Here is the input.
Amino acid sequence: MFSRSCEYALQSILYITLHSKNGQAIGLKQISESQKVPLHFLGKVLQQLVKHKILNSVKGPNGGFTLNISPDKFRLMKIVDTIDGSDIFDRCGIGLKTCSDKTPCPIHFEYKKVKERIKRLLTEKTLAELCQDVEKGQSIVTDK
Here is the structure.
């Protein structure tokens, strides 16, 4: 459903939040290696988040990225809006241009329910809540 750029941004924001203690910047290389994401591609994605003031970028030997918004107030939907745009929730599940409630594709109504649930999850849960699930061992952020 999401572009590769958006997936990397979502993974990275969770990783940075989990590993950035006391405002410590997390380096691009560390994020890239832990998430198994191409370094240069990830750098471009994270610079988009810096440009939109979601992340701060710190240069130098102790440089890297920090979250610019409190995890208690941050919703992942902001990442989706920034990278892919919220119109992804309006697209047909099989890519038809004319798919709608009046002229539905074969999966339209079921897919619409799934999109609504995903959108609600990304809008309602805070970054802090999602990270708590990881810290409790109920979910993961890094592939092994």
